[in-house]
Amino acid sequence: MSGVAIVRYLLVNAAGVTAVVPSDRIMAGDLPVGMTIPAISITQVDSLPLNTLLINETPRRHVDRVQVTVFRKAPPDDAGYPGLKTLLNLVLAACPGQRGTVNGFAVEGIIPDIEGPDIPIPEEKIFTRSRDFLVSYS
C-alpha cells in the first residue's frame, strides 16, 4: 500500500490535477458508489519485495505497480473523453521519475508504465481509463 500512498500524495499536491479533481475525490482504493465525477482511484496491482543477501535488513526495498484510474463524465456535466485524456496527462506529469523522500518514504524512482484501455460506462455517461506506475521505495 505504500506505493499507493506515495502516488496519492503526489496527485493531491499537484496543482494541475487538483484544479480538475478536488483532493477529496482522489482516493486510495475503490470509489464509493455515487461518487461525484471527475474522480481518481488509486490501487495497487502488485508488489515485489526485492530480496538481497541480507534478507532481514531494513528498510527493505519494494517495487509496487500502482494503477491510477481516472473518471470523467460526458458533456454537459463534465469534459467527456477529451477531458479524460487531459486528466491522464496531468496525472503523468504529477508522477515524474523522481527520487527522494515522498510522504515519509524513501522513493528510489517512479516509472510510468502501461496505459490501460478506454472503458466507457454508457448508462452512466462516464469515461474511464487507467495508467500504471512502477514505484520503487524503501
Explain what this protein looks like in three dimensions:
The chain is of the alpha+beta class. Helix content is 22%, strand content 38%. It has helices at residues 2-12, 15-18, 80-94, and strands spanning 26-28, 39-49, 62-73, 100-102, 105-115, 126-137. The chain is elongated and about 55 Å long.
Topology record:
Layout: H1 2-12, H2 15-18, E1 26-28, E2 39-49, E3 62-73, H3 80-94, E4 100-102, E5 105-115, E6 126-137
How much helicity do the residues have? 10-25%
What is the residue-mean pLDDT, rounded to a whole number? 93
Poorly predicted sequence stretches spanning 5 or more consecutive residues:
none
Sheet with most strands: 6 strands, mixed
Structural class estimated from helices and strands: alpha+beta
CATH topology: STM4215-like
Distance between the termini: 12 Å
Radius of gyration: 16 Å
Output the helix-strand order.
HHEEEHEEE
CATH class: Alpha Beta
Short description, anyone?
With 138 residues, the protein is an alpha+beta fold. Helix content is 22%, strand content 38%.
Question: What characteristics describe this protein?
Answer:
six-stranded mixed beta sheet; STM4215-like; 6 strands; 138 residues
